[in-house]
Prior knowledge:
By secondary structure, the chain is of the alpha/beta class. 26% of the residues lie in helices and 35% in strands. The chain folds into two domains: 68 residues, Signal recognition particle alu RNA binding heterodimer, srp9/1; 59 residues, Signal recognition particle alu RNA binding heterodimer, srp9/1 (2-Layer Sandwich). The chain is built from four helices and eight strands, in the order H-E-H-E-E-E-E-H-E-E-E-H. The strands form two sheets. It has a four-stranded mixed β-sheet, sandwiched between helices. Strands 5-8-7-6 form a four-stranded mixed β-sheet, with helices on one face. Helix 2 runs antiparallel to helix 3.
Amino acid sequence: MSTASDYRRLMHGVIPYATVEGADKAIEFYRRAFAAVLHGDIARSEDGRVLNAAIEIDNGMVMVMDPFPEYGAQPSSGSNFVLQLVIEDGDFWWNRAVDAGCEVVSPFKLEFWGDRYGRVRDPFGLEWAFNEPAIEKQQAG
């Protein structure tokens, strides 16, 4: 269970706010695919749609909500932005996401800039990039 201090620690910088059709199912999927941790309670509208859910993925925060077209909140599209995970164990993260049901957009492989990189699309239409920095970059950091 997360605490208020965990939530405050994660609430800084730029935080993506994804609007997805079926936010409850998306949150469960992100738990399986990315080991997401829900912070606090899910705020709901009177009709039960998700107004606000805060999930942590690898020490970063992502906010998730259902669409509210009556207020201008349309579903997010993976073609508008990509959520990038910078991770050390790329194969583990990649395989878990693909095994959970993500569709491969570009394979996870060594790229010309020296990092291993690949992209997937989740069942809710969002694209996720996996970037495993080169060993030399990790050691220099």
